[in-house]
Every structure is written in structure tokens, then in C-alpha cells.
Design goal:
Number of helices: 8
Radius of gyration: 25 Å
Shape: elongated
Structural class: mainly beta
Order of helices and strands: HEHHEEHEEEHEEEHHEEEHEEEEEEEE
CATH class: Mainly Beta
Number of domains: 1
Helix content: 10-25%
Length: 488
């Protein structure tokens, strides 16, 4: 069971890479805002298109296979889970021998969050005091927090205590006395009776995901001469956002449940009449049926003040904008769950349970058409850095945003040290803090030619698992294809 659990966790993470939030670039430690430069500055600090914190001789850069993935959970911060998973000496199998009710007690109220991002294409060019960049990015975010009743439905299926009777695979009907365990729960084919309100079942849970693609452009300019001492660098970035999927279930400030989803169906036009109407009378709404279900825009503005490339401070306002989603608002308040036929999920298949939880078809039979504007997580970023000699950069940054937004990290802060140990080797490390979560310690390295050429790098999102009994985050940032041209 341990091997199955480990493989499921790994495959669940890797399987999300093809649907890639703007994660730190490999090589920036815990301070991606303070160390943003060239096309990687987009969505962080567009002033970094004109100011190069690592090497002022950069002229052009291009990349196409870099990004990152991170899975974090309050559940991962438990040593007994990792003891079972890694079969450590003294493990008492606290997770592998649980009954279904024990398992639900362990996971209810725990959060699981996934962030993934990939730069499909990126390019940068410096012309005099100007810098220009383009990036095509794909991003995926998901979060899941299960209440007791929601977890019971996902993992116990028809055997959930919400139902009065169960129908076994043999066809026999029995009263549900709540005595089912993980070994015999698969005998239950259906549960019925009880009639719990869906709004109450989902009311203490939070479910959601967002999958978007963006085309981003930016420009920046340096004001003043470097030899004069202080320089001002200003920049602006803009992006077109195209959304292929969005789903959100959460309770508002009044405790009322809100559920909304929008999903791209490609070129699924229901009738030939609609096709003909789109051609003969191409209204904007009809043409939108042929594209993504979400369209929006975002703008970032930033500024950096530097002193001879040795000291700099930066500020930026990010994510000014919104995405408009065309989807459905689902009914929850008066809907009762009378029966449940979904197959129970054993604990080692929790990825399957998460997939079901984020599928509206699991919970809702119908909805009403709705167009909803979802604001981007407006964020204020502050940061700065100090170059000490030729081989060491110290940096710090902080971000402030609304933590209730699906795409937001909330408040974040970090400090970093970037060291060039050899001309071709740069390592970085730091401390990163998110909201009320435990400190993270990212560590990475970059291999590069100081005269230009290919760059590759990799970074662990949190290296504490190498020496601590548990780690709240599993993730990595990578750069496998990036080329840099230097001035002669």
C-alpha cells in the first residue's frame, strides 16, 4: 500500500505538468520579485526588463521549456504520514491501517493546493536603454479543503453515514450501521435514504481550480546614466488571458454556498443552424462560442532604483485586471442528496478522490447560464538587493494580496543569497514564508556560461524534507532550455 500511495502522489504531480501560476524562476532563490530580469520579469516586476541584477551585459535571451510545480498541504506536515510512506524504522503504520472513519478524521479540514506553471515560449531583447519581452505561459492552480461529510462521500461512497441504507454488490439491502471499514467497503454499490442538503454537505469545504493560457508583452526603460550613480528603471507589462477551465465552490461571508464552473468544449457547436448563423451573422457572442470560455487581461507596472548595479530597491503593482468566464452557476440550497452510486475511493487513491471533488458533475445535476468576472489577485510587491563583490548577491522581497483569491498566495516574504562559486556555477538558497504556514527553504543551482550560451537550472521548493521528518511542500522549479546572448 505504501508503494501505491507513493506512486499515486508522484504520478498525480507529474500528470499536472501538461496543464501548467507564476512560480519562481530557477536561480532566484526565495525572492523572485527582487531578482526578476529579462522576460522572466513579466508578472513580477516589468522594470526588470531594463535592469539586470545578475549581469548588465545581457543583450538577448530566449527560452521555451521552464517552469515549476508545487504541491503543498497541511496534511504533508505530519511526520506520521511520512513515516508510513517512507517505511521509516519505528513506523506504526498510522496511515496504512486506518479504517475509513479514521482516514476521514485525518484528512477533514486539511488543505491541499497545487500550483503549476510553464513558459512555452519566452524572448527578450535590449535596445539601448529599452527592454522588450514576450512570454507565452500556461498556468494551473487547484485547491481542496474537505469537510467531514464531503470527505465521507468521496472515500466511503454509498457506505457514508449520510445514508440510512446500503445496497451491496450482491444486490442485498442492509441498514447502514456505520461499521464498514476499508477492507469490506467495496461491497457497497449504493447508499440511499437520509436526504442531506447538498449546501450543508459542501458548506465546510472549499474546492476550486483554474487553468489559463496567457500571451504577455512588456517594455521598460532606464533613465539616467549608470556612471552617474543612481538610475531609475520603469516598466509596464500587459497580458491577454484565455481560460479553458474554472471551478469554485465556497461559502461567502454570510455562510451561503456559491458554486460556479466554466469549461471549454472546443468546437462543440450543437447544431448546423448555429454554425450557419455564426457565418452569416457573426456577432461577438456567437463568435465566442468557437474560442475559450474565459477571456481577460492583466496589467503590471513597476519601478526599480539602482545605484551602479550594486544596490537596488523595487516596487510593483501586479494583476490589475480580471477574467470573464462564461459558465454555469449551480444549485445548492434546496438540493437533497437522496442516494449515491459513486465507487468508494481507497485512501491510496486520493488523487482519484480529488479529481472527483473538482468535477461539478459529481455534485450538481443542473445549473443556470452565467457570465462572471473574476478579479485577478491584485498584489503589491516590494523588494531590493545588494551585490557584494562579484560572487554574492543578497536580496529580500515581500508581497501583499488577498488570500481568498484562488490564484493568490496571500502575504509572502523571503530572503535569498545567490553565490557564484565558479564562473559556470551559481547556487541559491533562502527562506520563504507564506501567510501562517511554516517556513520554506528553497535551494537550487544554475549551470551557465558567463560569456553567453545555454543555461540550465533546478530548484527544490522546500529542502527541509532532507533533514526534517516531514515537509509541507513538495515541488521543484526547472529550466531546461534557455539561451543567453551577451554584448561583445
Amino acid at each position: 500500500m505504501r508503494k501505491s500511495l507513493a506512486c499515486t502522489m508522484l504520478l498525480g504531480c507529474l500528470g499536472s505538468l501538461n496543464a501548467q501560476v507564476n512560480l519562481p524562476a530557477a536561480g532566484t532563490g526565495a525572492t523572485p520579485f527582487a531578482l526578476a530580469q529579462d522576460y522572466r520579469a513579466l508578472q513580477w516586476n516589468p522594470a526588470g526588463l531594463a535592469f539586470h541584477c545578475f549581469d548588465r551585459n545581457i543583450r538577448t535571451t530566449a527560452g521555451g521549456f521552464e517552469g515549476g510545480i508545487s504541491v503543498r498541504s497541511t496534511m504533508f506536515d505530519r511526520a506520521d504520514l511520512w513515516d508510513d510512506l517512507l517505511n521509516r524504522p519505528g513506523s506504526e503504520e498510522n496511515w496504512t491501517d486506518l479504517t475509513s472513519s479514521d482516514w476521514i478524521d485525518r484528512i477533514q479540514g486539511q488543505t491541499i493546493e497545487l500550483d503549476a506553471s510553464a513558459i512555452v515560449a519566452g524572448s527578450y531583447r535590449q535596445v539601448g536603454n529599452w527592454g522588450f519581452a514576450y512570454v507565452h505561459r500556461q498556468s494551473f492552480q487547484a485547491e481542496m479543503k474537505l469537510g467531514e461529510q464531503t470527505a465521507s462521500l468521496l472515500f466511503e461512497g454509498g457506505a457514508s453515514s449520510l445514508f440510512d441504507f446500503v445496497v451491496l454488490a450482491t444486490g442485498d439491502t442492509l441498514a447502514n450501521d456505520g461499521s464498514w471499514n476499508l477492507e469490506n467497503i467495496t461491497q457497497v454499490a449504493q447508499g440511499f435514504g437520509g436526504g442531506a442538503l447538498l449546501a450543508n454537505v459542501l458548506g465546510d469545504s472549499r474546492l476550486g481550480f483554474s487553468y489559463t493560457k496567457s500571451h504577455e508583452i512588456g517594455m521598460a526603460k532606464s533613465w539616467g546614466k549608470r556612471d552617474d550613480g543612481w538610475q531609475l528603471h520603469t516598466g509596464v507589462g500587459a497580458r491577454l488571458i484565455l481560460g479553458n477551465g474554472y471551478f469554485s465552490v465556497s461559502a461567502d461571508e454570510n455562510g451561503e454556498l456559491d458554486a460556479f464552473g466554466a469549461f471549454s468544449r472546443g468546437f462543440s457547436v450543437p447544431t448546423l443552424d448555429t454554425v450557419a448563423a455564426s457565418i452569416l451573422n457573426p456577432t461577438f457572442d456567437r463568435l465566442r462560442n468557437w474560442g475559450p470560455v474565459g477571456q481577460g487581461w492583466g496589467v503590471d507596472i513597476g519601478a526599480t532604483i539602482s545605484m551602479a548595479d550594486q544596490l537596488w530597491i523595487s516596487a510593483a503593482l501586479n494583476n490589475i485586471g480580471f477574467v470573464e468566464w462564461r459558465g454555469e452557476s449551480y444549485f445548492t440550497e434546496s438540493v437533497a442528496i437522496e442516494s449515491w452510486t459513486a465507487t468508494p475511493n481507497s485512501p491510496n487513491n486520493w488523487i482519484d478522490a480529488a479529481t472527483e471533488a473538482l468535477d461539478p458533475m459529481t455534485w450538481f445535476d443542473q445549473g443556470t447560464t452565467e457570465t462572471r468576472q473574476v478579479a485577478l489577485p491584485l498584489t503589491l510587491n516590494l523588494g531590493g538587493g545588494l551585490r557584494m563583490g562579484k560572487g554574492l548577491i543578497l536580496a529580500a522581497d515581500a508581497a501583499f494580496a488577498n488570500p481568498e483569491n484562488l490564484d493568490s498566495e496571500g502575504m509572502r516574504g523571503g530572503i535569498s543569497a545567490v553565490m557564484r562559486l565558479m564562473p559556470w556555477l551559481r547556487i541559491d538558497g533562502g527562506i520563504r514564508k507564506l501567510q501562517n504556514e511554516r517556513l520554506r527553504i528553497p535551494i537550487g543551482l544554475v549551470l551557465e556560461n558567463p560569456k553567453g550560451g545555454i543555461q540550465v537550472g533546478v530548484q527544490l521548493s522546500d529542502a527541509q524534507g532532507l533533514w526534517r521528518p516531514s515537509s509541507p511542500e513538495i515541488g521543484m522549479n526547472f529550466c531546461f532550455l534557455r539561451w543567453v546572448w551577451m554584448r561583445e
